[in-house]
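Standup notes
- HV: blocked on the assembly model, inputs below
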Amino acid sequence: MDRRGSQEYIDTPNRRADAASSDSISNSERSVSFPMNDSSSSKESGSPSKSLCSSASSSSENVPALEMKMLKDFAQSDESPLLPGEVVQGMAKDVTYLCPYSDFVKGTLTVTNYKLYFKGSDREPPFILDVPLGVISRVEKIGGVSSKGENSYCLDIICKDMRNLRFAHRQENHSRRQVFEKIQQYAFPITNKLPLFAFEYKEEYGVAGWSVYDPEAEFRRQGVPNDSWKISRVNEKYELIDTYPALLGVPKSATDEELKLVSSFRTRGRLPVLSWIHPRSLATITRSSQPMVGVAGKRNKDDENYIVKIMDSNAHSNKLFIMDARPSVNALANKAKGGGFESEDAYTGCEVSFLDIHNIHVMRESLRKLKELVFPTIDDSKWLSNIESTHWLDHIKQILAGGVKVADKVENNKASVLVHCSDGWDRTAQLTSLAMMMLDPYYRTLKGLEVLIEKEWLSFGHKFAQRVGHGEDKHSDADRSPVFLQFIDCVWQMTRQFPNAFEFNEHFLVTILDHLYSCLFGTFLFNSEQQRVKEMKVRENTKSLWSFINYQMDDFINPLYAEYLHQHVLFPVASMRRLEIWTGYYCRWNPRMRPQEPIHLRNRELLVLKAQLQKKVEELQKERESKNARGILQSQPRVSSPVNV
Amino acid sequence: MDRRGSQEYIDTPNRRADAASSDSISNSERSVSFPMNDSSSSKESGSPSKSLCSSASSSSENVPALEMKMLKDFAQSDESPLLPGEVVQGMAKDVTYLCPYSDFVKGTLTVTNYKLYFKGSDREPPFILDVPLGVISRVEKIGGVSSKGENSYCLDIICKDMRNLRFAHRQENHSRRQVFEKIQQYAFPITNKLPLFAFEYKEEYGVAGWSVYDPEAEFRRQGVPNDSWKISRVNEKYELIDTYPALLGVPKSATDEELKLVSSFRTRGRLPVLSWIHPRSLATITRSSQPMVGVAGKRNKDDENYIVKIMDSNAHSNKLFIMDARPSVNALANKAKGGGFESEDAYTGCEVSFLDIHNIHVMRESLRKLKELVFPTIDDSKWLSNIESTHWLDHIKQILAGGVKVADKVENNKASVLVHCSDGWDRTAQLTSLAMMMLDPYYRTLKGLEVLIEKEWLSFGHKFAQRVGHGEDKHSDADRSPVFLQFIDCVWQMTRQFPNAFEFNEHFLVTILDHLYSCLFGTFLFNSEQQRVKEMKVRENTKSLWSFINYQMDDFINPLYAEYLHQHVLFPVASMRRLEIWTGYYCRWNPRMRPQEPIHLRNRELLVLKAQLQKKVEELQKERESKNARGILQSQPRVSSPVNV
């Protein structure tokens, strides 16, 4: 009887200890061992070079074998596998990794200009940790875990991706001091006047990631230019608004002069421009920064007329909804700083509402609390109430609810919506991109989400460099905030509510977030299109994340995507009881929070199976057709003229 | 451009109000309208007659059309569609259903000997409520919502399935009084000396549900009898232990006399017998009630020797693990009542541990709190901490963790485990059946779970009638408890952790629970095999739930089941952060908690698609073969003898 084989394939002993010791979790978390866990997880996230991961895309049959071979090769030495352009900067033996989930591991620590690579020497297969330096937020030397002897010196590494790493060694010596210094140096290249690794990275994917987003093509897809909207080149050289894209969708009748005048009345010049237009009703989503009304309630005729033009371009509604992402008190407070919001008296036909989304500081604090809860250990008994106390899901709910409100007005009232916050590059980007994803099934495909991110986030100047703090040693910088992470979290929440409506899978979303921090690709570097394209020429000098993704697209496809079923508008339910903590991202470093089943493999398997069946059907049909054709020929009377035989 | 069609198909207006009004939930829950919601949900759960639902199994193409036609027919009149054997008992017009999620609905209320059927008269399509009387726990006349005029008399109906219903009418009159009295009467047939509807139900499924479980075949499947175990007929007439099955798996060397002596030392005679045996190691799971050691610590040589026989039947371990499901204090307290647990001194080689699962009263109270939270409205802001305060998930965790402990010993230590609690029919059944499901992939198939329920729950005398309170007007009976519901909840939790490991889907689990209460089938009636089979002859006089299920099996199949991947032992992680409130069951009456996508339809679609593709491949292959055969014949030289042409 061979009804059951061996146990669960993923880290069996660990899994077992896990489940059986549910009463004393924190103890078991210290005592379980899982030799390959960190290695496998870091492979998912880190070092995504073509040479390491590319095998996945070429043929799903060969992957494991090829990957295994490479792992074996590396296992021969303590040295780190290197990406093209990567150079070892330092190396130290007899370092201890103080893993919070297993026994401490002794091994060799290597630092390159891209990553930190630790390889254990006391286990087989070796324990491997492979972390891009870009995720490091702070490096701290602290007193060791014991005051003398073993592990007396400690290095604490605080990461941006919800984990911390701690290394220790017996006593200071040259090579160890050097390797620790190299981490400090290469983790913060901007601070240390070193190039970001994306500019050193020499991989060739043979896929044109930088061409994924073509603004004119995207306007065309939306039907622009049309009778009411045109593409303006007034900002082509980024001279009018340095944080806006080169091409702007504006009302057809708006002159360049007018655009300049409106721009002068909006914070940072960010005048209202087109994000999306409904293919039938022509109701639009436009975005901007706040009007500079100030405490005096200044008015600006050009701005008011321009808003009327936006309203009039939509024949279905004589109203324009202005959705201010902020809580109303914050919007009011901004008047003191010269900002504020549109008064309904001045802007006739406009209805202003506030979406109550908190600012970047509140969001940063909420995520900080969440990290404390999920890393390194979780208090199981208070899990739910602890999660509630971070308010993370409340914020996610509020953002998602805001997106639904925008989409609802556009779809169900055929009304146009103008979205803004203060500067219009954080909450505004969250709202427009989520609403667009609800309204337009194109953005729910893999390439569609790439385009959406390029368009609403990158081209409209979400300050990725400031919010993430790329390459800078300023852990407590008040400009850092998980704004883009929240957007991706909201997308994930939508995929949970509509599991068949999205072409991409969870791995795609996690991969985007990993490379938000990694600095391996040029995609998320710098703060605006102007900086990226004009100043730093990332298209010429770095690789696009989308090259990496699209090169091995199969890895990121949801096998349950039912395109034909989902050509309509999706309205996710934004309530606490329908939202979940995205454990697959926030808790993934904890081996006890990993999925029980290898969903990733199963997904790929389903795709392969589907492709095989479809191919088989095609082959057989072809064969039948050709046989039928021959049959017809054979049965034809010989006397017919054999023209095409 | 037709990139997007109409909106979400399920109750669009409602869905919309939902999402957009996330800030003021309880208000919106009162104001939204969803004409067909209750109707569609009650169709899922109630009136599952062949004539109503059977179409699903015969051809998935015809279902909607046929169902629509029938719905239309019914729509012509206010009368309820009737099952074979169902008789209308009363009817009243102008009754108001005080729906907690929509405007109040006026309509006609019909009561039959099986169900309560309400049809609204003020909407098109009509609002329909179709509730088996079996789910009713209590009926209460209360003061109306207003003291005079409209809706001054009220009927409150407390249900066993996590909802309450409230009807009202302007003033007392004969037909309304009569229909309310009929509800009281037919909801509690046992109290009112009426037959349970299962004995009136005259459907013919043409599927032998009662034959799904054949104890001898199941023993054979497990390899019993073998060198160490035999099937004993000592209880064939239920004379030795009236709550045990007719056939018992016992150690081969145990004589009938010995079994009787051991039985006399166990509460209610429930001696240790075989539940499951490992196909390779021959480690066993046995189950029993507590030994009657009492405060004096009585010993019984027969019981001790018998336990040694169980231990010795497994060559791989010289230890037997006795897992007492109770908290140790409860086990100790039982000594005062003559019960208790095995002392390790008396039972050499045994290791006793306590699994800390609380008793039926604690569980009932926890579910009561949960119901208060989820029905009728949910406080979204405190959702997580409120859920935590019910401790429902803590209890689920404890039961699941207990199952894992049993399975772990059997699989990883190759050791045998004896499970008991006090009587051995509540917590013991939860633990043995969950452990068996983890260990044996057979029980993870649809028929396998049917067998598991028949075997570990029904044949071993889980007191379904007492725990559910079938047909009795004793709302506060202390014997009622959601023990079986907890088991099904644990199964659902396992399906969440291993989405590809189970052949059945969530709808199967919900359907089982619906018919736990409905009294439509004989399956869950009465307290023991003896009562069901010998006294009440349910096999002859009622239908089996499994006939209904297996007649339309496709509806209950998980399209993502990957049998070949899951022929091994599953160890679910039993920790709070991996468990979820089963909203698909507990919160399903709340329209705002329904899934956004019609997963049910999508599942069926996937199955149909798979079947079509497979059929196509087969057809084309057949065609090719026959053509090839003909081809060979044609190309053969004419001179060969044409034997088989």
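- HV (later): unblocked. The first strand of chain B starts at residue 88 and ends at 97. The longest helix of chain B spans residues 599-635.
- Next: hand off to the docking folks.
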